[in-house]
Amino acid sequence: WTCRCDCPVGICLDYNLQCYHPCRETINRNPWAGCSPGWDCPWYPSREDGHCLSEMHQPNNFEIYRTAKECCDEHYGGSAKCLRDSKDSHDPFPWPIHFP
């Protein structure tokens, strides 16, 4: 079977399906563009914090995951503490009080 990588914010797939070029240099779209940390931005392991973090502009880290659970399962043995600390490290998503 095949696998397709997701690129960090601001980087898009090139013609060889590698994450090397800024999005302005390619026709591909980045699924993380305009994401909200802790909600729909990618998650990555933070060795310093001992859990996973979600940021729009992450450090030079290419081990990214769609959910905190996927990240914790892969890097921290599925620890419930990792999942709790990861989610607690971000403010809750700011839901609008009313819809326009």
Can you describe this structure?
- 17% of the residues lie in helices and 15% in strands.
- It is α+β, with helices and mostly antiparallel strands.
- The strands form two sheets. The protein has a two-stranded antiparallel ribbon with strand order 1-2. Strands 3-4 form a two-stranded antiparallel sheet.
- The radius of gyration is 15 Å and the shape is globular.
- The mean pLDDT is 76.
Give a short overview.
By secondary structure, the chain is of the alpha+beta class.
Number of separate strands: 4
Please report the distance between the alpha carbons of the first and last residues: 44 Å
Q: What are the secondary-structure elements, in order, as H or E?
A: EEEEHH
Residues in β-strands, percent: 15-25%
Specify the number of helices.
2
The strand line-up of the biggest sheet is: 1-2
Rg calculated over all Cα atoms: 15 Å
Helicity range of the residues? 10-25%
Largest sheet: 2 strands, antiparallel
Protein structure class: alpha+beta
Q: Overall mean pLDDT score?
A: 76
Residue runs with pLDDT of under 50 for 5 or more positions: none
Question: How does the overall form come out from the CA principal axes?
Answer: globular
List keywords for this structure.
single chain, 100 residues, alpha+beta, two-stranded antiparallel ribbon, 2 helices
Explain the layout of strands and helices:
Layout: E1 11-13, E2 19-22, E3 43-46, E4 51-54, H1 68-75, H2 80-88
Antiparallel strand pairs: 1-2, 3-4
